[in-house]
Amino acid sequence: MDRAKKFAVLLVLLLYAVCASATSASDSKDDYEHCRSTVKKWASSSLDLEVKEDKHTLRDLLYFLHIPRTGGRTYFHCFLKKLYASSLECPRSYDKLRFDPSKPNCRLLTTHDDYSMMSKLPKEKTSVMTILRNPIDRVFSTYEFSIEVAARFLVHPNLTSATQMVGRLRLKNRGVSTLDIWPWKYLVPWMREDLFARRDARRHSGPTYIRSNDSYNMEEIVMPLQEYINDPIARDIIHNGATFQIAGLTNNSYLAESHEVRHCVLKYQTLSEHVLDVAKKRLDDMLYVGLTEDHKESATMFANVVGAQVISQSIASNYSADPVVDDKSEESSSSLDSDPETSHHRNSSTGQKASKISSTGNMGATSKNMTVGKLTQVYETCISSLRKTQAQRRTSSLKRISPANFTKEARRQVPEVLLQEIKSLNGLDIKLYKYAQNIFSKQHKQMILKSAAAKMQVQGSQFNNAYGAPSQDIIWIAMSIALLFLFVALFVKARRRTSKIKL
Ligand SMILES: *[C@@H]1O[C@H](CO)[C@@H](O)[C@H](O)[C@H]1NC(C)=O
Ligand SMILES: *[C@@H]1O[C@H](CO)[C@@H](O)[C@H](O)[C@H]1NC(C)=O
Ligand SMILES: *[C@@H]1O[C@H](CO)[C@@H](O)[C@H](O)[C@H]1NC(C)=O
Ligand SMILES: *[C@@H]1O[C@H](CO)[C@@H](O)[C@H](O)[C@H]1NC(C)=O
Ligand SMILES: *[C@@H]1O[C@H](CO)[C@@H](O)[C@H](O)[C@H]1NC(C)=O
Ligand SMILES: *[C@@H]1O[C@H](CO)[C@@H](O)[C@H](O)[C@H]1NC(C)=O
Ligand SMILES: *[C@@H]1O[C@H](CO)[C@@H](O)[C@H](O)[C@H]1NC(C)=O
């Protein structure tokens, strides 16, 4: 009797468990199906809407989709700022949390905002460019830069006073700071808090013995790389960041539906191929795709493909004002990828300057006086000075987290396992990067062929002008020689025949 009761209870429990698991399984199956259709719908609508014709022709507005840590900052300062007068820049593209389309006729938009930005732009009048970087290097660089910027705050005695300083600066500079720009607005405060916590712990525990000599794994001082890449924040905004940004699916996206798609893709990896397809298609349709690694070739191509067109566009559009050569652009322009600390030194003059530029509203293009050759020269000098200041800033900032120092030697000692982990976390970006390399090499070949053809044409026309008559003679001589051979051949044949008859 007792046994039977027990058995019955067990049976009921078992049945209940089976039912519960079945319903939850069907729930998750429903969820997957829902996600699948959401992602597919998004992908097909994203693939449909592309404007295809003439993608290599510069349109009215150039949108530089700047993927963080790809070296886009040098393109902005040393190319784009030399080509476009400040008055042609869309308002405070970097300085503001969000794009403000209050200036309808602007011609240059440079931003970390993702491709969903296109929903705010006149699509048929917009050309897009971007730069891609080896995803592993990009992750390293993101890690190092977020620490570098955060470490500058270590001059403050404690986190409270550091964050108070940021607040005061923001008021003074009217919101202009790296800390307002995605993704740094998440990454820097995160690292800053972490650095202060580790420093406080060191102070409380007395003299610390640092066990590791590996800068990427020095937990007494900074968050180890391994921990960084596995944090939910990194998963949210660093890994596969290039693919998500080009697909318009970052967590900074303008479109509400993007967020659902993103969550689905992060949840079900099998759906990520759709995202990759969209990103690839968008790269295909871009005016220019550069590669951080092929720096020299990328710069040459930029000057010839984009630079040349901006120059001819500005000449054709015939702005009445004199050209403005914006020598001060490095200091005066936005704080993209730069640090909040420089704003200390710049004090309130930055704000005044910015308002002055926009109020004069000079419609002159910087490029009126520009040529491709000159542009390349200007770029070279600009980039070397920019690099120097960047390196100085980095060194002085990393001093604060000594003995950790992100040098090339330190990098070489990073264990292979960790590199593999980064690779597997960035599978989409690795595929997209390969795809971009293909696009780049094709475009590069085309450019070389074109310039070779142009040279040939020049030489050809010179040849015709100088030696027009002789070249005609050469044709006549060649024809006569050919005729001569024909006659000889006929003659020999005829003789053979006659000799045969004789025999
Ligand atoms: C942080 O530093 C400031 C400035 O030295 C000091 O006034 C404040 O008391 C400190 N706060 C804490 C919580 O230690
Ligand atoms: C974006 O990611 C950051 C870091 O994980 C997070 O704090 C923020 O809430 C996210 N934003 C959205 C809209 O999901
Ligand atoms: C260029 O500017 C000149 C003088 O300002 C003007 O006469 C001419 O019509 C302009 N051409 C075009 C195409 O706008
Ligand atoms: C602001 O900067 C100017 C020069 O750039 C300098 O002369 C002035 O002393 C600075 N003011 C403050 C309060 O730091
Ligand atoms: C622009 O061109 C004019 C003449 O074509 C020249 O005098 C002037 O120096 C040039 N300006 C710059 C900044 O190169
Ligand atoms: C970090 O390494 C760089 C390059 O090797 C060097 O110039 C710098 O002085 C080092 N910093 C510290 C604090 O050791
Ligand atoms: C760290 O120490 C190991 C041996 O313990 C040595 O082989 C390696 O070169 C050191 N790395 C650095 C960056 O000094």
From TrEMBL:
Highest taxon, organism lineage: Eukaryota
Transmembrane spans: 474-492
Membrane topology: Single-pass membrane protein
Residue numbers spanned by region Disordered: 322-369
Location in the cell: Membrane
Bias type Polar residues, positions: 348-369
Example of a GO cellular component annotation carried by this entry: Golgi apparatus
Main location: membrane
Protein name as catalogued: Protein-tyrosine sulfotransferase
Organism: Actinidia chinensis var. chinensis (Chinese soft-hair kiwi)
Lineage of the organism: Eukaryota, Viridiplantae, Streptophyta, Embryophyta, Tracheophyta
